[in-house]
Design goal:
6 domains; about 10% strand; alpha+beta; two-stranded antiparallel ribbon; about 950 residues
C-alpha cells in the first residue's frame, strides 16, 4: 500500500501546508485591519484634539495685514468685507458669499488666495500668502469661520494669581512676572540699593527728588518697613498731585492759549489746580472721570465740578476772521469724542468719523451716535469762550438772591437763575443771526448799521416775558425792534439803545407769545449819517422770566443785588454747559466724515460691540460717564492701569497706550493687566494711589536696573521685567530735578501759569502785542507744569525733551535722544542759572575744599558718595575751567552772569562742574 495519500490530486502534506498558509493569511488580515484601526484612531485623536484655530491671535493678524485694506471699513471691494462676521458671510457683488463656513473648498476666498495667476490671486499685486497662513485660513473656515473677541473688548474678570516658585515675590504682581520669567528661562535681578530706590520712587511718585528730611529718614531707617513708610510719605506729599496732573494735562490737551492761527490766551489754569487736588485727594477714578465729562450735569453742581468740565473746554477755538463758527464748533465736538476714546479707553476711534473702523468692531454710524452725547453743549467757537463759570467771592449774597427767587417764584426758576448768574447761560450768541441786512457778523458779535435787519431762528418764547442782552452802544439814539415770524410781523419789543462805554448788560420786557418763532431784529438810528457807521454791536440774547416778587417788600433791594452779581467783574473759567430742551441740537451722520453733508439722524448711543448702555442712565454726558465707569466696560480700567504701569516701568504692559485694539501691540502680561484692572475697580474702588502703591511695592519694581550680557541677549527691551526700569526722565522731571538740586525750587502751588526764562523772539504774532515777560522772584523757579503753554510756540527746552504741543490729546510721549537736549541743559540760560546757584550751594555746604564741594554736589544730585574715578574726572574739569577763568574777567563774568570785578574764578569753575553734574547720564535717567 502506497504510504503517500492524495485527495483530488493533492497530497496530505500539501493540503496541510495550504491550510497553514490560509490560517496565517487570516491572522495577517486581522493584524492589518487592527493596525489600520489603530492608525486611524491615532490620526483621529490628533485631528480631533488639535487645538482649534483662534480668530483673534491667528486669523485676525493675517486679515489685518493682507486683506482688510481692500476688504474692510474703508473699502469693500467686490462687496466683500472682513470687518464683521455678518459682512464676511454675506453675498458679494457676484451674488455668492466668499466664505462658506465648514466648506473651504467651495469658498471663493480660499480659491482666490491659492491661484497661480498673480492678476487673479489675492492679495492683489502682492506676494502670495504663505502656506502656513493659507492652512490657518482653510482650517478656520473648516471649523465654521467663527469670529473671536479681541482681548481688550472682553469685560474684565477676576484672574487667579499664579503660584510662586520661590521667596522672591512680594505681592501678586510678582507672581505673574515670575511665571513669565520662568517660561523664558530668566531670573529676576537683585533688589536695587537704597539710594537708587529712593531716587527712583521719588521721581515716579512726586516727579522730583525727595526732601532732605525724607532722604535722611529713609537712609537711616534699617527696619523692614522703611521702604513702605517712604512710599506712604511720597503718596501723601502735596507734590504727588503735581506730578500726576502733568501726565493728565497731555491727555486733556491743556494749554494757556486757544490754538489755531491767532492762538490767543485763555484763562483756564483753575482746571490744572482741580487736577492737582483731585490726585492729591485720591479722588476715585470713576468720579474723576465723571466730573470731567459731566460735572455740570451733577445735582447741585459745585464750582469745582463745573471747573472739572474744562477737560473738554481745552479744545481749540479759531478766532481768525472769516471762519465759520459752526465748522470749528463741530471740530471741537469731534475732538471731544476722539479725546474721550484715546484718553479714557485707549482706542483709536477718530477714523470712524469717515468710515467704519478698518480693524476693530466699530461702525460708521456708531461714531455719530457717540458724537450726539457731546453735540448739545452751549459753546460755539466764540472769541469770548462762552460758557464761562463766574466765581463770586460773596457767595452769601448769591445764596440770598437764589433763595428769594425760590420763595417768590419756583424751584425751577431758582435753578435757572442760579445757573444764569454763574454762567450767563442759556443765551443765544449774536453770531447765530442770519439774513443780514446792513449788518455783519464778526466772530460772536453782530454789528448793526442804520436800517439794519437780521433773523434769529427758532426761539421758544413760551413763558418767556423778559429779555436780557449784552451790547455796546456805539452811537446814541438807536431804536431796536423785535418782530415775530417776518420782518414786518408783530412787534413784541421796542427798545431804545443809548450810547455806552463798552459792553454792558441790560433788560427789556417782551409781549407774551407762546411757541417757537423766528425773530426778526430791525434797527434804525437817524444819528448815523454814513452808510458804514456802526450804531450798536450785540453779543448775546437771553430769553427768560422777569425777576419775581415785585409786590413783596425788599423786591428792589434784592433785584439790585441780583444785577450787581449778574454784572460783576469776576474771575471766569471756560466750562461745559448743556443746552436746555428748547435749544437742543439734532445730530446726524456725516457722509464720509464731511460735516456739511448730513446723513441719517441719530440719537446718543454707544457701540454695540462693547458693554450695553445702563438702563437707568440718562442719554447725556452724565449717562455716558456711567457707561464708561461701569464694571462691564472693558477698556476704562485697563487703559488707566496700563498708563500708570508705563509711567513707572517706562513701557506699558501693552506698549501702544494709544491703541489697545487689534492693531496695537498685544500685552506682554495680559493676565497681570486684567488682575490689576479688576482689583483697581472692585477691590481698591478706583483708588489711583492704591494702584500705584501695589506696583511700586512689588519686587519687580524694586529690582536693580543693571543689565547683564545674558539679559541683553534674551530680553533687550526688558519686556519680561527681569531687571528694574531705566528710562530717560520727562521734560518736566529734568527741569524740576535741576531746580531741586540747585536749591531754587519754589514750593508755591496752584495759581496762574508763570513765565520762566525764555529766549527773546520765540513769540511773534501779528494779532496782538502779547510778549513773553519773564516772571520775577520765586515764580520763575516754579515746577515745570506751571509754565505758560502756548500751543503755537511751546516752551523750547520742554519741547527738546519730547514735550507735546497739546493741540490734540497725546496718549504717550515717544522718548528721543537728540543733540538739542544736551544743548538745552548745558547752554540754556535757565539751566546755566541753576548751575550757578548749585555751585553756590556746594560752596556753602562744603566749605572751601574743592574736593569736598564737588563731593557734596555729587551726593546732592545722585544721593550716593562720589567714587574716586568720578572725582578725578570732575577735578580735572574744574582745573581746566579755573585756568581759563583765572585771568579772564570777561569769561568769568559771562559764566557767572555778572560783571562784578570781584567774581571769583573758583566760583566760575565750580559752576562748570555743577553744570556737568546736572548733565550726567545718571541724572537725566531714572535707574
Amino acid at each position: 500500500m502506497n504510504s503517500s495519500c492524495t485527495v483530488n490530486g493533492f497530497g496530505i502534506e500539501s493540503l496541510a501546508r495550504l491550510r497553514y498558509l490560509y490560517l496565517r493569511a487570516q491572522d495577517m488580515k486581522k493584524w492589518l485591519i487592527l493596525s489600520m484601526v489603530v492608525a486611524l484612531s491615532v490620526v483621529t485623536f490628533f485631528v480631533t484634539n488639535r487645538k482649534a484655530i483662534d480668530f483673534t491671535t491667528e486669523v485676525k493678524p493675517i486679515l489685518n495685514k493682507n486683506c482688510i485694506v481692500c476688504h474692510g471699513g474703508v473699502r469693500q471691494k467686490a462687496g466683500f468685507s472682513l470687518l464683521f462676521r455678518e459682512e464676511a458671510l454675506a453675498k458679494t457683488k457676484s451674488g455668492k458669499p466668499a466664505i462658506i463656513p465648514g466648506d473651504p473648498d467651495q469658498s471663493e476666498m480660499i480659491r482666490r488666495i491659492t491661484l497661480d495667476n498673480p492678476e487673479d490671486r489675492m492679495p492683489y499685486r502682492h506676494d502670495p500668502l504663505s502656506k502656513k497662513d493659507i492652512d490657518i485660513l482653510r482650517r478656520w473656515i473648516k471649523e465654521g469661520a467663527t469670529w473671536g473677541e479681541h482681548w481688550s473688548y472682553v469685560p474684565v474678570k477676576e484672574i487667579p494669581v499664579p503660584e510662586s516658585g520661590g521667596r522672591w515675590a512680594r505681592n501678586p504682581v510678582d507672581n505673574f512676572i515670575e511665571q513669565k520669567l520662568t517660561e523664558q528661562g530668566l531670573e529676576p535681578s537683585a533688589t536695587a540699593d537704597k539710594q537708587t530706590l529712593l531716587r527712583r520712587v521719588s521721581l515716579d511718585l512726586i516727579g522730583m527728588p525727595a526732601s532732605a528730611s525724607l532722604v535722611k529718614q529713609f537712609l537711616s531707617d534699617n527696619t523692614d518697613g522703611a521702604y513702605s513708610n517712604l512710599v506712604d510719605s511720597l503718596l501723601a506729599s502735596p507734590h504727588f498731585g503735581e506730578k500726576w496732573a502733568a501726565l493728565w494735562m497731555d491727555l486733556a490737551r491743556y494749554a494757556d492759549t486757544k490754538g489755531y492761527e491767532a492762538d490767543r490766551g485763555r484763562t483756564i489754569w483753575k482746571y490744572r489746580d482741580w487736577l492737582i487736588r483731585a490726585f492729591n485727594n485720591d479722588k476715585p477714578y470713576d468720579r474723576f472721570l465723571t466730573e470731567q465729562l459731566a460735572g455740570d450735569l451733577l445735582p447741585d453742581a459745585t464750582d469745582a465740578e463745573y471747573i472739572a468740565t474744562a477737560f473738554h473746554r481745552n479744545t481749540m477755538t479759531n478766532d481768525e476772521g472769516g471762519t465759520d463758527n459752526e465748522e470749528f464748533r463741530t471740530s471741537a465736538v469731534l475732538d471731544r469724542v476722539n479725546t474721550t476714546w484715546a484718553a479714557v479707553m485707549g482706542t483709536t476711534f477718530s477714523c470712524v468719523q469717515c468710515h467704519s473702523h478698518p480693524y476693530d468692531p466699530f461702525k460708521h454710524d456708531e461714531y455719530y451716535k457717540f458724537v450726539a452725547f457731546f453735540n448739545n453743549t452751549r459753546d460755539e467757537d466764540t472769541g469770548e469762550d462762552y460758557p464761562l463759570l463766574r466765581q463770586y467771592e460773596d457767595t452769601v449774597e448769591l445764596s440770598r438772591v437764589v433763595s428769594w427767587v425760590r420763595q417768590n417764584g419756583s424751584e425751577e426758576q431758582a435753578k435757572e437763575s442760579y445757573a444764569f448768574l454763574k454762567t450767563w447761560q442759556p443765551a443765544y450768541n449774536a453770531a447765530k443771526c442770519d439774513s443780514l441786512v446792513h449788518c455783519e457778523v464778526n466772530s460772536s458779535l453782530v454789528d448793526f448799521r442804520n436800517h439794519a435787519a437780521c433773523r434769529l431762528k427758532n426761539v421758544d418764547l413760551t413763558n418767556k416775558d423778559h429779555l436780557l442782552f449784552r451790547y455796546a452802544g456805539i452811537a446814541g439814539g438807536g431804536i431796536w425792534k423785535i418782530h415775530i415770524d417776518s420782518p414786518t410781523g408783530n412787534v413784541i419789543a421796542t427798545i431804545p439803545l443809548p450810547q455806552t462805554k463798552g459792553f454792558q448788560m441790560t433788560e427789556a420786557s417782551l409781549k407774551a407769545v407762546n411757541g417757537k418763532h423766528d425773530l426778526y431784529f430791525t434797527y434804525s438810528n437817524n444819528n448815523l449819517k454814513k452808510v458804514d457807521d456802526s450804531g450798536v454791536i450785540f453779543e448775546w440774547f437771553a430769553f427768560t422770566e422777569d425777576f419775581p416778587g415785585k409786590r413783596n417788600p425788599g423786591y428792589q433791594a434784592m433785584k439790585n443785588a441780583y444785577w450787581k452779581l449778574l454784572t460783576a467783574n469776576v474771575p471766569t473759567t471756560p466750562v461745559m454747559v448743556e443746552s436746555p430742551s428748547d435749544m437742543r441740537r439734532e445730530s446726524f451722520v456725516f457722509e464720509r466724515g464731511n460735516w456739511m453733508v448730513k446723513g441719517n439722524k441719530v440719537e446718543p448711543d454707544v457701540p454695540h460691540s462693547l458693554n450695553p448702555f445702563p438702563q437707568e442712565a440718562p442719554r447725556n454726558r452724565l449717562g455716558l460717564a456711567m457707561w464708561l465707569t461701569s464694571r462691564l466696560n472693558p477698556l476704562t480700567a485697563r487703559t488707566m492701569v496700563n498708563r500708570i504701569w508705563e509711567q513707572l516701568f517706562g513701557t506699558g504692559l501693552a506698549e501702544t497706550l494709544e491703541d489697545l485694539g487689534s492693531q496695537g501691540a498685544p500685552p506682554t502680561h495680559v493676565e497681570l493687566l486684567d488682575w490689576l484692572s479688576y482689583h483697581f475697580m472692585l477691590e481698591d474702588h478706583w483708588s489711583v494711589k492704591k494702584l500705584i502703591r501695589t506696583m511700586v511695592m512689588s519686587a519687580t519694581y524694586r529690582q536693580d536696573s543693571k543689565v547683564t550680557a545674558d539679559l541683553l541677549q534674551k530680553d533687550p527691551n526688558n519686556k519680561f521685567y527681569a531687571r528694574g526700569p531705566r528710562v530717560r526722565l520727562s521734560a518736566e522731571q529734568i527741569r524740576d530735578q535741576a531746580l531741586c538740586v540747585s536749591g531754587l525750587m519754589s514750593n508755591k502751588m496752584y495759581g496762574p501759569s508763570v513765565f520762566p526764562y525764555q529766549p527773546l523772539g520765540i513769540w511773534t504774532t501779528p494779532y496782538n502785542e502779547a510778549k513773553w515777560t519773564q516772571s520775577k522772584g520765586e515764580d520763575q523757579y516754579r515746577r515745570a507744569l506751571y509754565t505758560y503753554w502756548k500751543r503755537s510756540a511751546s516752551y523750547p527746552s520742554m519741547v527738546a525733551f519730547d514735550g507735546v504741543s497739546r493741540e490734540v490729546c497725546s496718549s504717550r510721549r515717544i522718548r528721543t535722544n537728540t543733540p538739542l537736549q544736551a544743548l538745552a541743559t548745558l547752554n540754556d540760560s535757565a539751566y546755566v542759572d541753576m548751575a550757578r546757584h548749585f555751585a553756590d550751594r556746594m560752596q556753602k555746604e562744603a566749605g572751601n575744599d574743592v574736593k569736598k564741594q564737588i563731593g557734596r554736589g555729587f551726593k546732592l544730585a545722585t544721593l550716593r558718595t562720589i567714587d574716586d574715578r568720578s572725582l578725578q574726572a570732575l577735578m580735572k574739569l574744574y582745573n581746566i575751567a579755573f585756568s581759563q577763568f583765572k585771568d579772564n574777567t570777561t569769561k568769568r563774568s559771562g559764566m557767572l552772569g555778572s560783571a562784578d570785578m570781584h567774581a571769583k574764578p573758583e566760583t566760575a569753575a565750580l559752576t562748570v562742574v555743577a553744570s556737568a553734574i546736572l548733565n550726567l547720564d545718571e541724572l537725566v535717567t531714572k535707574n
